[in-house]
Amino acid sequence: MPVPPEALREVEAHRRRQPGRAAIGEHLPRRRVEHDLSADEKAAFAAVERIGEEVSEMLEYIPARLEVIQNVRLKYRCERADGSSTIRTACAPSSPIAKSNAGPGLLAHVMVSKYLDHCPLARQQRILARDGVVIARQTLCDWVLDGAELLSVLMPALHRHVLASPVIFTDVTTLALQAPGKTVTARMWAYLAGGHRKDDEGRWHAVAPAALYDFTLDRSGTHPRRILGEWRGYLQADDYSGYHARFREGVTHVACWAHARRKYFDVVKAMPKGARPGLAHHALRFIGLFYRIERQIAEADPDLRRQHRQRRTKRVLAWFHRWLTAHAPTLLPKSPLAKAFAYTLSNWTALTVFVDDGSLAADNNLSERAMRPVALSRKNWLFAGSERGGRPAAVLFSLTETARLNGVEPYAWLKDVLARINAHRVDRLEELLPMNWTSAAA
């Protein structure tokens, strides 16, 4: 069944980036090293005049170093006018963690290494030992747990920010948990703020991105209901039955075309080499057509995106739906291709919601990308350790991923906030969230 030519109008071909060496960032400090002619080379000429220079740059690595900061509190005997005296001692910054000698920079480094760089604490212990600093692995573990507990006071404000967004992307993945004599499969959920809002002058603004992770021992539908509460809006999610109760309570389900596409891709991948293109190939072409449109309008505002989707994407989807319904009865009921057709058709309403709202995405890739740090950490750690370790992991994944999404350097944010949070006003904790953060050094 051909696609009408007008459905393809105005769609530009996708241009791949040409490979090349990336430029060295301007934000990095430069150290000038001059290379001159030798004295013998200069002596070979009657006169030598400098007329310019040629500059080339080489990126170099300087190993990190540890230092001990001695906080020296000066003491004074202070005499009053009446002849009496008292002792005054200057204040010094308190440690983020009580009864610990770990500075905020070291704590931030351990946390970033574990949750963003996916480096287990045992490996970090060996790296520190190579630098001549011996720290017990249990001490590193305690620092992470206590630091996460300190930062957990920011989670209610982060939760409120996510619930204030008109669109929430969500996904869930597994996490192995050690239990006495066995391994339990726990879950890590992600809820990401998304969508756009109009200001008083009618201009669109994207919601500040944020990621809220939630650690649970099972995949019960009570967990998303607990997190979402009375929230109403668009929930971009897969077809997990645990969300269905919310879809009956005023939450609009937006399904994921990447998830649907993957089912056809798996069919194609399983075909023998050299096999003729089949129905799965044709389905991928249909999906590719409206993804080409999505790439073209990616930078447009929601109003313009909706116009393009209504005029062009809707037509492609209508033809795709007729094609699916025409071929579905011809398939073996339990075949992977039949299951791909059935998934697409049964979720058609949720898959096509994005056409009517330009602030919605065609897929749930945002939350799937948010699961990559969890998946990479899972691969490196093997275990979350215990339930006691799972919940701090959710806190630190939430805050470091939110920092990354907002273009905030996670180490700089953690170091600054760990140094300030104990003295910060409780009623203004949202100021410390990455999207609102201003460094104390600024």
Automatic annotation (TrEMBL):
Highest taxon in the source lineage: Bacteria
Domain (Transposase IS66 zinc-finger binding): residue spans on this chain: 49-79
Domain Transposase IS66 central intervals: 99-391
Organism per entry: Azoarcus sp. (strain BH72)
Protein name: Hypothetical truncated transposase
Pfam families from the UniProt entry: DDE_Tnp_IS66, DDE_Tnp_IS66_C, zf-IS66
Limits of the Transposase IS66 C-terminal domain: 398-434
Alphabetized InterPro entries for the sequence: IS66_C, Transposase-related, Transposase_IS66_central, Znf_dom_IS66
